[in-house]
Amino acid sequence: MKKLLKCADCRKGFRSASQLKIHRRIHIGEKPFTCSVCGKGFARSFNLVSHQQVHTEDRPFKCSDCEKRFKSKGGLIQHQQVHTDERPFECSDCEKSFKNFGGLIQHQQVHNEERPFKCSVCRKRFKSSGGLVQHKQVHSEERPFKCTDCGKCFKSNEGLIQHEQVH
């Protein structure tokens, strides 16, 4: 039996020196494979090849249930969850369950007080990037929500909905 080579940082074992060398890039931040379109760097060549799909219109992976198309197999697999009632990702705090891991992670923010997203104008903090984006509208003169009845414009969809009750 061949002895495994261990990573000095995380003790993960590898069968060859080349595998260990590639793995070490994670710990040292080396990203020798760079996208020629956007400049994003990758530790592994296959990650670059996979990433380059975002710069094309090619969507070779088709959902057999609804005909929607995806750039990656992973995107298709994640999408297919919408066609099932399966919710395999369960919150350990309240037992609420989710169709995907991202939904669970977003939900878990309700159980902690951490607010990592800070407004650069007023320093108010938010639990999600979406909350911050929505809040920033307060500081803007932009009013993208327009009433179809009278043409009056609003900073938020909520403001428009409240106004529409007047008509």
Number of helices: 6
Average pLDDT for all residues: 88
Portion of residues within helices: 25-40%
Beta-strand content bin: 5-15%
Q: What coarse outline follows from CA principal-axis ratios?
A: extended
Described by strand count, sense and barrel closure, the largest sheet is: 2 strands, antiparallel
The ordered string of helix (H) and strand (E) elements is EEHEEHEEHEEHEEHEEH
CATH class of the domain at 57-112: Alpha Beta
Architecture per CATH nomenclature, i.e. the level-2 architecture of the domain at 57-112 = 2-Layer Sandwich
Distance between the amino and carboxyl termini: 79 Å
Unreliable stretches covering 5 or more consecutive residues: none
CATH superfamily of the domain at 57-112: Classic Zinc Finger
According to CATH, what is the topology of the domain at 57-112? Double Stranded RNA Binding Domain
Describe the strand arrangement of the main beta sheet, using strand numbers: 1-2
The counted number of beta strands is 12
* Gyration radius, rounded: 23 Å
Structural class: alpha+beta
Task: Report on the architecture of this protein.
With 167 residues, the protein is an alpha+beta fold. Among the domains are: 5-47, Double Stranded RNA Binding Domain, CATH 3.30.160; 57-112, Double Stranded RNA Binding Domain (2-Layer Sandwich), CATH 3.30.160. The protein is 30% helix and 14% strand. It is built from six helices and twelve strands. A two-stranded antiparallel sheet has the order 1-2. Strands 3-4 form a two-stranded antiparallel sheet. A two-stranded antiparallel sheet has the order 5-6. Strand 1 (5-6) and strand 2 form a beta hairpin. The termini are far apart.
